[in-house]
Amino acid sequence: MKKFLCITLFTLSSLYLSAQQQYTWEEYGISFTLADDFKESVNSIDEFSASGDGMELSIIPFKDDAIDDSDIHAYTMSIAESLNLERVDDVNTIDINGFKGGYAEGVQNGAKIFVMGLIDPDSETNFFVIITFQDEDQNAIDEAINICKSIKKI
After folding, report:
1. Where are the domains of the chain?
2. Mapping DSSP to helix (H, G, I), strand (E, B) and coil, where does residue 12 land?
3. Are 120 and 99 in contact (CB under 8 A)?
4. Cβ–Cβ contacts within 10 Å for residue 87, how many?
5. Which CATH superfamily is domain 21-153 in?
6. How far apart are CA 25 and CA 7, in angstroms?
7. Which residues pair with 107 in a beta bridge?
């Protein structure tokens, strides 16, 4: 029984790991992971966008070496405000994988919108990450969190 359970857990872990796509955006020295159902729609120097099962992701780089983590948090909040969200579920600062910044998540017309601003304290390149999906979709919420946690400098 223990052997069967170990084999089953190993197989499920392998399936989960193989169900991920690793992306490297060489121009900006970052990598991130998306579920295997995501397909690129834009991959240029100005934007990376992809869509998956009920989700959309965009990463938009910008250069500014004069801003700090409080500035990016304020910029992120102003973007969230400009979206005229019907409901704001969370606003917070973040420090993740060498990036600092802020995020806001809210709802507009039944869609959850997640906006994250990231600065790289070691370069002039910064990023806005926008993820949208159906409100109250717990799988999508978990997937969005995993995407954000996977963004790292290479």
Report:
1. 21-153
2. helix
3. yes
4. 10
5. Mog1/PsbP, alpha/beta/alpha sandwich (3.40.1000.10)
6. 35
7. 87, 112
pTM, rounded to two decimals = 0.82
DSSP for 59-124? EEEEE-TT--HHHHHHHHHHHHHHTT-SEEEEEEEEEETTEEEEEEEEEETTEEEEEEEEE-TTSS
Q: How many CB atoms lie within 10 A of CB 46?
A: 9
Alpha-carbon distance values, 49 to 7, 69, 118 (Å): 37, 24, 17
pLDDT mean over 60-68:
89
Location of structure tokens 């990023």 = 127
The whole-angstrom distance between residue 15's C-alpha and the CA centroid of its chain comes to 22
State yes or no: pLDDT of 91 exceeds 80. yes
